[in-house]
Specification:
The chain is built from 9 helices and 10 strands. The chain is of the alpha/beta class. The protein is globular.
Length: 301
Amino acid sequence: MTSESSHLPFNFCGLERPLSDYDDARFVVLPVPFEGTVSYQKGTARGPDALIDASRNLETYDEMLGFEVASLGIHTMEAVTETDSVETMLAEVHRIAADVLADKKLLVTVGGEHSISSAPARAAKEVFDDLSVLQLDAHADLRDAYDGTPWSHACVMRRCLEFAPVTQVGIRSLSAGEAALLKTEPHVTTFFAHEVRAAGLRPMHDEILSTLTDEVYLTIDIDVFDPSCVPGTGTPEPGGLFWDEVVGFLRALTREKQVVAFDLTELMPLPGNAASDFLAAKLVYRTMGLIAEAARWIGTT
């Protein structure tokens, strides 16, 4: 995560220069090891470290896409360590995200808990006016405040609603208050996990995509996956999504919409079990590749 790591070179995919250089990289990975508002199991602060470490064991050739995403350049930034408060952390993430987006890089923020996501999403909104937020998640995260703060991981999508419409996919846990909000709030559209299970995600692609604007900020809480796929998360919920259907949906998303930035959060590494870490790392890499495929970046560098 930093130059002092024992896992040098601690870059995404273990890339060395020139592919890890900022100036020429298409993608920039920002680790944010924050878990200041976690309300159940702790450990997501170790998520960025574990994900990046796992990425060093990926084959950089993507067998589904047929090219090396890493050839486009992936720069890994120093981790955000401004963790005195959630407000301080969000301000620092917003500052960095704004700079990266101004440099026309594809920003990939890696958490840490889900509270981090409102900062890069807000920075994206400042660049891309016609922005919507797509949330893949088990939890609605629409509370106005939780545990005395409006910046909790349980409030992150409520904060995003303040500047962009939100579409949620995979939701299977919410409070009565959040359920009531969904009945009256016109700027959030929710596709529950039980609906996906009944109809199948592929037949729902067009319906989901129709709720989004042309420019999309994608936020992936790793607990959108069924715990049988990803046990390593702080608040696992049964009845989640699976690898092939998530990747298939992301391919449809990137072909129809412009994903301007994305994040992955809530990975909680489990000692002696790297499966969750590796899935998260491959999902980040595959999503980069899907964006590159849709934008036809391969062959243009």
